[in-house]
Design a protein that fits this description.
Helix content is about 45%, strand content about 30%. The chain is built from one helix and four strands. A four-stranded antiparallel sheet has the order 1-2-3-4, with helices on one face.
């Protein structure tokens, strides 16, 4: 009878350990999925926002200035934002160039560059 109790007790401990381990794995997967979703959402909103900046630049390359701002996943300015949007403009040999980068913790997520033919005095910033 005593052997039967020990075997049942060990079996119960093994089952509890299995379920504890399974729950830890599920929680980690859920957390990772949330982070992947947030980053994909930021990429999507970032792509739209950056395309709008490029279109505005194509209409008037003389308008605008270089900047680097922190943003949240919805591409709204946020001092504590995880994402950094950087815009650089230049004028060289008859071409206005806009260079946009969206980064997350020094990891580049999106890089867009566009060139526009036009006249300018080299002051495309």
């Amino acid at each position: 009878m005593k052997k039967n109790r020990n075997a049942s007790f060990m079996e119960m401990i093994i089952i509890l350990f299995f379920f504890a381990l399974a729950s830890v794995v599920i929680v980690q997967l859920y957390a990772k999925t949330f982070l992947i979703h947030e980053r994909a959402q930021a990429k999507s909103y970032g792509q739209i926002y950056m395309e709008e900046l490029i279109e505005a630049y194509r209409i008037d390359p003389q308008e605008g200035r270089d900047f680097q701002i922190r943003m949240d996943a919805y591409m709204e300015e946020d001092e504590d934002g995880k994402y950094v949007l950087e815009k650089k403009t230049s004028y060289e040999e008859g071409l206005h160039t806009i260079d946009l980068r969206l980064s997350f913790q020094d990891q580049e997520l999106i890089h867009l560059e566009s060139k526009v033919k036009g006249q300018g005095d080299g002051d495309a910033k």
